[in-house]
Amino acid sequence: MAEQSMKILWMVFLIVAAYQDFRERQVSVMWMVCGAAAGMIGCCLMAGERYQDMLETGIDAERVSLLMNIVKIQMVRIGKAAGIGAALLILAKLTGGAMGGGDGLFFLMSAFYWDWKELLVLFLETLAISSAWGMALLMKRQWNRAGTPSVRWKETIPFLTCCLVPGIIQVWNVLMQ
What we know:
The chain has 177 residues and is mainly α. The chain has helices at 2-24, 29-56, 61-94, 101-110, 116-143, 159-162, 164-175.
């Protein structure tokens, strides 16, 4: 139950961040901090649910060891997923802002909600959609060469807006399990 609630909460953060990215071409850092804080609380609640399940079956030394393994696995999972967001933040710094820092912050925040494999799939699907958007802009520019180009050469593509469709599909898949 907590996992499904976490995914729905993540979807709310995605929708607001995508709207901000589309309208203002930037994402509120405070909104990402709130998302990360909510994700940390959710991770604790999910670990608590697992612990409660262990208490109902009777706790012994083996189960305490299992609880410690759950905590370690959770920390490693978050660390791996956070690597994707950290890589995007480094890319934003290296490209001088061509890739926005808000995108990296969003994926960093998403590490509390998704496993690293799911987050990597989400990133790659978003990358494919934004690439298709970029190709459409280039084709539009090429077709308008006879007249005045309607697309600026440095057109920006809101990356998190492209994340909406893959994000909705991933949340839908989790809710339908």
